[in-house]
Amino acid sequence: MKLLSLSASDLSGGAAVAATRLHLGLKADGMDSTLIVGEKMGGDPDTIGLDNNLTFSLRRNLDLAPLKLDQAPESISYRSLAWLPNKKLERAIAARNPDLIHLHWTQNGFMPLSLLDKLTAPLVWTFHDLWPVCGALHHEYQNDLRYHEGYTAANRPRSRRGLDLDRRVALRKEKAYKEHNIEAIVPSHWMAEQVRKSSLWRDRPLTVIPIGLDTQIFKPLQKAAARDLLNLPADKKLILFGAMYAGSDKNKGYHQLREALEQLNLSKDEIELAVFGMSAPAEGESPLPYPAHWMGVLRDQFTLAALYSAADVMVVPSLQESFGQTASEALSCGTPVVAFDTSGLKDIVDHEQNGYLAEPFEPSDLAEGIRFVLADTARYETLCENAREKVVSTFSLPQVVKKHREVYEKHLA
């Protein structure tokens, strides 16, 4: 089988990392796999990058330009229109002539919806967020359930002005989907529930496959050695938080974490923080209430695994995650996770077994979860053992590759 996967990037963001890990896992399993991306950052020889940084940034901004015609509130989540033609991508797909095409996160001006009409190979699509079943939105916005009902002029929120771009994008999707028998994959049972409620995908095929990871990279390391490697203190309880764009993306829950830390009531002589994926707050912004080590953006998996091993607890306060790779990565390194009891994180964290699921979206209960993990040494050791066991038994890359092969073969039959 000649497989071609498409992703806006190979390393920038969780969806890109997931696409690359699957591609590499399939190659290791003997599949003829190629990944085409707009922005290539890694060194895999079977990953083809189409654009340099300037071109990729320009395409992203051009694709988003019409949003100025839709006077959406500033608080609205990220949106994509997927209208910008990409002849370079069309030619690259034609040159590969694949037996099957696997779509991942293809926005940022990388792949227009109109390209679906030109693809002749069978299609599998991993929904890394809700964009495929919403209008232009990537996440449900303030209980706007238009994606359940269908986008009409009558159910547009009264607060919205200008062109109804969500409706226009949804109509383009509806037309494109009718022409293809697309097999959808979602990474969590929560995502499956949301997608099955949508007017665009209610009666279409859907399979749940979690996002896999290499458990030989993300594995427990000796805590003292990991801290020494990363120049982190040996005598503190270390709370870890991080995500791509963690500071600017409100969905990642940075502000909820800060409130939880303010209510933690543990000694500053005992607790310190490590934060990755964002820079230290600018002067004038509210600082975190405990001393913090700002690790920056980490793209190297081995450094990231060492950081997870160095931490005593990982906090993932996201408001919504299709899966939650930072949670599964931390568990794989034997580090318990505290998260809100919501969305895809419920598939990863088992309450009081390998971490703590706090009441959404209560900072006080998030603080209680941190205290629960750190309070009892014997219980902590059990949490750590359960954490590693959960990932090895459920999310290891070979298991996930096998499940994808089954979907591919069924779709081609």
UniProtKB/TrEMBL annotation:
According to the UniProt entry, its GO molecular function terms are: glycosyltransferase activity
What are the residue boundaries of the Glycosyl transferase family domain, all occurrences included? 232-389
Under the heading Gene3D superfamilies, the entry gives: Glycogen Phosphorylase B
What sequence ranges are listed for the domain Glycosyltransferase subfamily 4-like N-terminal? 13-216
Keywords attached to this Swiss-Prot or TrEMBL record, sorted alphabetically, are:
Transferase
List the protein's name.
Glycosyl transferase
